[in-house]
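User: I want to check something. If I give you two sequences, will you return the structure for each one separately, not as a complex?

Assistant: Yes, each is folded on its own. Here is the first sequence with its structure:
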Amino acid sequence: MLQKEVGEQKSFSLFGHFSFILLFAAFTTLSAQQSFKDFKKAQSESFQSYKDERDKAFNEYLKEEWRVYTQQQPDSLYEEPKPEQITPAKPQTITPVGPKVYIEPKDKVKKQEDNASVDIEAPSKKVKNTTFDFFGTKLSFNVSEGLKKATYYPQNQLGISNFFSQAALSEYEDLLTDVNKTSKWMNLNDWGVYLLVTKISQMAFSDEDSSNLLSWFLLNKLGYSVKVGISNKHVLLLHYSKKVIYATPSYSFSNKKFYALNNYTKSALRIFSYEQDYPNATKELDLSLRTLPNFEADTQKKLLSFSLSGKRYDLPISYNKNLIDFMATYPQADYETFFNTPLDRSTYNDLNSAFKGYIQGKKASEAINFVLHFVQSAFKYEIDGEQFGREKVMFAQETLYYDKSDCEDRAILFSYLVKELFKISVVGIKYKDHMATALYIPLEGDSVFVKSKRFVIADPTYINATLGMSMPKYRAIKPLSYITIKEN
């Protein structure tokens, strides 16, 4: 069966011989003869020898029968809407208990691993035929003319095979080498690699279908499990992920979920696609961000302020706007991804110095509560629907950048600060419509048990609340789940 468009299939033999007259009749409606020439060229090239032995078998497989796949309902991060307003608690007196806290000087803080190894060779600065800005870094790649001439024609299953055949016969190897080298040099995670390949593809092709097909070809060659589907003659790119990517349409292939990331707001309900992966292309799209990418610094500054017991406190920070722009592209990954992503080192060092000036030598309860009040009061509470028009979990770095945030954003920021400043174990606490944290400390108050350990509630959204205070609504409710936060 050869796919023509969604809902329409037409049977014919892919391996039969077509006369020139029949082919010409099929394409007389074309406005230009070049497409027909490209089509004939792709057909003749399919009999040539591929450089990669996997390509011939896979291209033949692409010509076999495709079938319909139905979109699955996207998962939501929250079971119920988050509260639009939070009623503050009455101001509390903090009882100084516990050992005195001494914040390590920033020059002795355990450094985050350098984003790029000194042993990794930087990409050549020689200007090539494809140059663009990638989050503040100017990059150049050579996209071969043969690769640029790969054609999605006709706009159906056979066109996918034609594109793949032409791309596989082109000089693509140097481009793959440069992508790998640049990814390592910039310390890009899988999401960074995806964005880099997407940018290269968009520079090579002005139309979205061809751009998606080039991304598909390159990502498969890089070992990622990526498929393409067709809906109304247009190409949909599908990425395999073991973890749920929320608010994103997905399709199941052999019990594996593939997500339509580049078209998630208008994805087709039904698509035509194929079952098997490109040989040895089995890597999932892993959205974890344990170390930050190495972008050029666009350093900007901000003053964070809050009041406690009638006194104002100021915390000046610096941040890299290029990193903020990168984080803004992120899809709705699982909570562990956001809770376990570090702050930029310069930003953390600024906070470290500021907190040290305010809490050095204080008892542990006072010091931790000071940081809790900072997260509660230095930002305005606003749900994501009002701020962004959609649900958006923010990295700790983003929460410091934006003036407004909601519960999970504050929980992510607070957990990171507590873990780094005080070396305390912390977990995220997830309710149907709210997120808080809990700390493994010997204090009285509201608590939860996680793996037989008692964790004391700390709610960064409940303004004026101290350690051990839950919002009344959640005091008697068992959390739905706990988010694991890895220790240093």
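And separately, the second sequence with its own structure:
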Amino acid sequence: MNKAEQYLKAGTRENTRKSYRAAVEHFEVTWGGFLPATGDSIVRYLAEYAEFHALSTLKQRLAALAQWHITQGFPDPTKSPQVRQVLKGIRVLHPAQQKQAAPLQLRHLETAVGWLDAEAGRAIESGDHKTLMRCRRDAALLLIGFWRGFRSDELARLQVEHTQAEAGSRITFYLPYTKGDRQHQGTTFHTPALKRLCPVNAYIDWITVAGLAAGPVFRKIDRWGNLGSDGLNPSSTIELLRTILERAGVPADTYSSHSLRRGFASWAAANGWDIKSLMSYVGWRDMKSALKYVDGSTSFGGLAVEPVVTLSGES
């Protein structure tokens, strides 16, 4: 691979490349389409799968086909008026409510972290280093994921050398790119130390017990207590989160990795954060994205049947 090819490859994320390859293969092999395609063939392809796939899936496949045509020097058939019209028809005839992860409730976060701290205390007394490491990692994952509003892939890409934590003050994270950072300019995130459920202390406790000086912040711990060298797979975050919550006695069926992000957004909205401050803190570029994560019921505050739990004296 020459240098030009290396830079072209680096310009597209690996997950995107994989999904695009799969989409083009589906059009050619599974459906039997021909490339370069015509607007008419794209319309027939969409009509074939409109009843079986979500509109978002169909749009992702269109994006892959569009990229293939552009990179090969052909006109993009996905932009034809017929394709736009059939997408509109699919939206009308097959409306679907967007599924969203339930926001992690602050009381559930507190229960889980309290259980992890108790387990860590018992592990210290018994000299069980493996359990101690797992508890410290899981607590840091929950608290950083919640208070920073990170996505699962962002948690997986955090690096020790790009993280600075000062006890009693704040923690700073740097990510070379995020979903909203299309130009890969890099983003720095700050989170203050808190009086309780503190992400700063949780991070320091974790890297201290794990002896981490560089590399991924969050890693696998095998059954023998060996710490992996690679970061956690983002897709494993859902299972890990649910396992932590279930072991702590918290109902976890409705929670996913996005529950941490939605949980913080709902907590912030309930505690008086305006939408611009929330967008700036979490890193949303448009209001539509931000509003997807905010639980509208929080606007009822103390009149709700179950009042929202807040952290007194914290911001």
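Because they were folded independently, the notes below concern the second chain alone. The CA atoms of residues 24 and 65 lie 6 Å apart. The first helix runs from residue 3 to 10.
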